[in-house]
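[RESIDUES AND BACKBONE]
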Amino acid sequence: MMPYATDQHGRPVFFISSMAMHTQNLRQDPRASLLIAQPDAAGDPLGTARVTLIGTANEVTAAQVRDLYLSRHENAKLWQDYTDFAYYRLEVSGVYFVGGFGVMGWISAEDYSFARPNPLAGGRP
């Protein structure tokens, strides 16, 4: 479980402490995935839409993503000056979408990078 923001290409950005197991794992092997599920879905969670982004998480400079991340997680300003935190961005190489029971499939990284959010859905940027 990890707070994230997405850039204009849908790549998740994370702000992680070096003490976190996430960071230690990424330093050993940068392959990672992020499961994004509908929040507060009523009923059976297996019947709700979700997506798993798969790729490689690499450290990026604060100058590249800080404003983006803080626009989504303002409380992270409290940790910006701590030297043990760093930004990581997931370079998406595959996407697996589940729309509910019987609706699922792989989406190419290229198709994902060109997809645009539905402005009426009110979802997470």
